[in-house]
Structure formats: structure tokens, C-alpha cells
Design a protein that fits this description.
This protein has helices at residues 2-9, 13-18, 20-48. It has 50 residues and is mostly helical. It is elongated. The chain starts with a helix and ends with a helix.
Length: 50
């Protein structure tokens, strides 16, 4: 899990858990990534069902 956190967000879990500003930044990026993924899925589904 530590390695995945480091690769995905550039910080380790320990830093994530101890630094509120970093945690907020990571969570905002996760939300942005999720929204982009959901939009891509919706676009693909629309293209398939046209």
C-alpha cells in the first residue's frame, strides 16, 4: 500500500496521515481523477449505445 500511495501521489502513507494539507491535496486529486474516469465511461457508453 505504501508503494502504491508513493507511485500514485508522490507521498508516502505516513506523510499523508500526518500532514492535513497533503491529505486534502491528495483527496482533491482523487476526486478529480474519479470525475474524469466517470466522464470517460459515460462517453464510451454513449458511443456504444448509439
Amino acid at each position: 500500500m505504501e508503494k502504491a500511495m508513493q507511485q500514485a501521489h508522490g507521498i508516502g502513507y505516513n506523510e499523508y496521515s500526518l500532514n492535513l494539507d497533503k491529505r486534502i491535496q491528495v483527496e482533491q486529486q482523487r476526486e478529480k481523477d474519479y470525475a474524469q474516469s466517470a466522464q470517460m465511461i459515460n462517453d464510451l457508453q454513449r458511443r456504444v449505445h448509439v
